[in-house]
Amino acid sequence: MHPLQHPRNAALVGILFVVIAIAFWGLAALLNWHIDYAGVTMLGALGIAMALMAYVLVAGSPSE
């Protein structure tokens, strides 16, 4: 049995990290703080990697 009804919805797992990266960048720019571009890039990359891996794991699981 799939943990999710539609494996394409597994991408939403990684969207959270991409949203956090955008919020981290946006708040720093809005409040005139130092923007840590490496942190924003790593959070974005983590989100993409988590979404891809969640999709692969769910799509590859047996659909019993």
Key phrases:
elongated; 2 helices; 64 residues; mainly alpha
Structure description:
This protein is mainly alpha-helical and 64 residues long. 67% of the residues lie in helices and 0% in strands. The protein has 2 helices and no strands. It has helices spanning 12-30, 37-60. The model has no long low-confidence stretch (mean pLDDT 80).
Write the SSE topology:
Blueprint: H1 12-30, H2 37-60
Task: Give a brief description.
The protein has 2 helices and no strands.
The main sheet comes to: none
Low-confidence stretches: none
Beta content comes to: under 5%
Report the span from N to C terminus: 5 Å
| Average residue-wise pLDDT | 80
- Helices and strands, in N-to-C order? HH
**Class from helix and strand fractions:** mainly alpha
SS summary, helix count: 2
Molecular shape: elongated
Taking Cα atoms only, what radius of gyration do you get, to the nearest Å?
A: 15 Å
Query: Total strand count, please?
Result: 0
- Give the % helix: 55-70%
